[in-house]
């Protein structure tokens, strides 16, 4: 995105565990919304790479879209872990009064865990059955919570310190 926007555009990228065979990779980016009063969305999308190290735009498949009501703190780290799942970090919007890090009713300020590899039918991902909030509408993807801007692989340890807050994987003791 062009202009005076901070922390926008392409913020993260992760290669499919079998990228060498299927050429799939995932990106975390922000997009503008049609309504200028709204700040944007977080988008996770899958692409296929070509042999010339470029992405095939026609291969784009949207995996997940999250409404983000602010112009700050989008998050952006993402990566596959040895369990085969994709972990994605989202930011808190920069407004601590909203309480996003501790509120499991939102996907903001969380580490999300999903499986985008081969979802059945028209779905764009599946939810790992051992995610802590399976069955909680809109939040079954939450893997860890408690940090305004979780980031990097350390954020997905059972208990990790991210800045001045402690990130706790749901279901573990604080």
What features would you describe in this structure?
This protein has 174 residues and is mainly β. It has a single domain (10-169), classed as TolB, C-terminal domain (Neuraminidase), CATH 2.120.10. 2% of the residues lie in helices and 37% in strands. The protein has one helix at residues 19-22, and strands spanning 10-15, 24-31, 41-49, 55-67, 75-80, 86-90, 110-114, 142-145, 159-162, 165-169. It has a 6-stranded antiparallel β-sheet, with no helix packed on it. A 4-stranded antiparallel β-sheet has the order 1-2-3-4, with no helix packed on it. The longest helix has 4 residues, at 19-22. The chain starts with 9 loop residues before the first strand and ends in a 5-residue tail after the last strand.
Secondary structure elements and pairings:
Layout: E1 10-15, H1 19-22, E2 24-31, E3 41-49, E4 55-67, E5 75-80, E6 86-90, E7 110-114, E8 142-145, E9 159-162, E10 165-169
Antiparallel strand pairs: 1-2, 2-3, 3-4, 5-6, 6-7, 7-8, 8-10, 9-10
Helix content: under 10%
Largest pleated sheet:
6 strands, antiparallel
Q: Rounded to an integer, what's the Rg over CA atoms?
A: 16 Å
Structural class, please?
mainly beta
| Overall 3D form | globular
Beta strands, count: 10
Distance between the termini: 39 Å
Q: What is the CATH architecture term?
A: 6 Propeller
CATH class: Mainly Beta
Strands side by side in the biggest sheet: 5-6-7-8-10-9
Q: Classify the oligomer.
A: single chain
Strand content: 35-45%
Query: What do we call the CATH topology?
Result: Neuraminidase
Low-confidence stretches: 158-168
Secondary structure tally, helices? 1
Number of domains: 1
What letter string, H or E per element, gives the SSE order?
EHEEEEEEEEE
Mean pLDDT: 76
Please name the fourth-level CATH homologous superfamily. TolB, C-terminal domain
């Amino acid at each position: 995105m062009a202009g005076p926007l901070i922390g926008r555009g392409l913020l993260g990228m992760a290669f499919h565990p079998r990228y060498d065979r299927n050429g799939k990779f995932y990106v975390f980016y922000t997009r503008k919304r049609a309504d200028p009063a709204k700040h944007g969305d977080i988008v996770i999308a899958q692409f296929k790479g070509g042999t010339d190290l470029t992405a095939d735009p026609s291969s784009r498949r949207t995996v997940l879209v999250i409404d983000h009501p602010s112009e700050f703190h989008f998050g952006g780290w993402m990566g596959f872990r040895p369990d085969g799942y994709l972990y994605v970090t989202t930011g808190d919007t920069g407004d601590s009064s909203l309480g996003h890090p501790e509120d499991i009713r939102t996907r903001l300020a969380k580490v999300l865990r999903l499986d985008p590899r081969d979802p059945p039918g028209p779905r764009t991902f599946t939810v790992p059955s051992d995610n802590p909030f399976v069955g909680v509408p809109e939040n079954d993807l939450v893997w860890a919570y408690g940090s305004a801007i979780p980031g990097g692989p350390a954020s997905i340890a059972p208990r990790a310190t991210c800045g001045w807050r402690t990130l706790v994987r749901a279901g573990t003791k604080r």
